[in-house]
Design brief:
Layout: H1 6-11, E1 13-16, E2 22-25, E3 46-48, E4 56-57, E5 68-70, E6 78-79, H2 83-86, E7 92-94, E8 117-119, H3 131-138, E9 144-145, E10 148-149, H4 152-162, H5 174-182, H6 245-257, H7 261-273, H8 279-292
Parallel strand pairs: 2-3, 3-5, 4-6, 5-7, 7-8, 8-9
Antiparallel strand pairs: 1-2, 9-10
Helix pairs in contact: 3-4, 6-7, 6-8
Length: about 290
């Protein structure tokens, strides 16, 4: 089993993905745990851990820049309670095809006030009664859950549902994080001089100390998983045909309008594999045909 060493992290494929974000590709290495990400020096907007053996989502250094984390097809059963102190600006979390089984195992995500897109497709927890109501109620900042836009009706139901639940109790709340900083607890900051105290250079974490607010009704583009790049030696590399910005916008619109989970997964597979060239023309033709009918 491969360890996630500094050499592996520094030698992994790095590129600008279709969303114009800097992405680090750590797909297919079969690593069992997250470690040594401090060597990234917080230079990436997205990190892709697809197809590894990760069991717990923790051990991150402070990565203020990181907005998207893709952990598809792993063995994640737990999420570290201190994830908010390491990834305060996380917006997209893809946990498709993992082993999270209990609703309470999702509670560490509650303090992530910027998290708007979450996927738990093919996780055992999705089979729990009132799964969507629980997640939407606990995470009111979400806009999309399992590639499906959260409706106002669902939000209203979820608010009523969580009123009957005990509040989330955490050993590492936002106030605990702020207190630990004032108490002089050492936090590893990528790129900071060794042996010297570090201080926050901006107020990125100020919003985390505020109560979760209701999101606005304005729609945001649907986050996506990104194309494959370099894989572990011996793993077949996917050659991508890709497409232009119109194709990207069209497939995004198609995902938002999809009526079944099978259709969502089919479109999502096209996007993640890069095989969507010419999709815009096909989609517009299909829309015109439906309007004529």
């Amino acid at each position: 089993m491969v360890k996630l060493t500094v050499d592996l992290v520094e030698g992994a494929m790095q590129y600008t993905n279709p969303l114009k974000d800097r992405e680090l590709d750590l797909r297919g290495y079969k690593v069992p745990a997250i470690e040594n990400l401090g060597s990234t020096l917080d230079q990436f907007d997205c990190i892709d851990f697809t197809d590894n053996e990760i069991r717990k989502l923790d051990n991150f250094p402070l990565l203020k820049r990181l907005k998207a984390l893709i952990v598809t097809s792993n063995k994640v059963i737990r999420i570290g309670e201190d994830i908010v102190s390491s990834l305060p600006n996380l917006e997209t979390l893809i946990l498709t095809d993992n082993n999270i089984a209990e609703l309470k195992d999702l509670d560490p995500l509650v303090p992530l006030s910027k998290l708007t897109f979450l996927s738990l497709v093919r996780c055992p927890v999705t089979l729990k009664m009132n799964y969507r109501l629980y997640v939407i109620g606990r995470l009111p900042q979400l806009r999309f859950l399992d590639f499906k836009r959260i409706t106002l009706a669902e939000r209203k139901q979820a608010r009523s549902f969580v009123k009957h639940l005990a509040p989330v109790t955490k050993t590492d709340t936002i106030s605990d994080i702020n207190n630990s900083k004032s108490a002089g607890v050492k936090t590893f900051v990528p790129g900071a001089p060794v042996g010297k105290k570090t201080t926050d250079e901006n107020t990125d974490n100020v919003a985390l100390s505020k109560p979760l607010e209701k999101t606005s009704s304005s729609e945001q583009p649907l986050p996506r998983e990104f194309p494959q790049a370099t894989l572990h030696p011996g793993v077949k590399r996917v050659i991508m045909s890709g497409g232009n910005s119109q194709d990207l916008n069209a497939i995004q619109d198609a995902i938002k309008r999809a009526k079944t989970m099978d259709e969502v997964e089919r479109l999502h597979h096209m996007l993640s594999s890069g095989q969507y060239a010419g999709f815009a023309a096909h989609w517009h033709k299909q829309q015109q045909s439906q309007q004529q009918q």
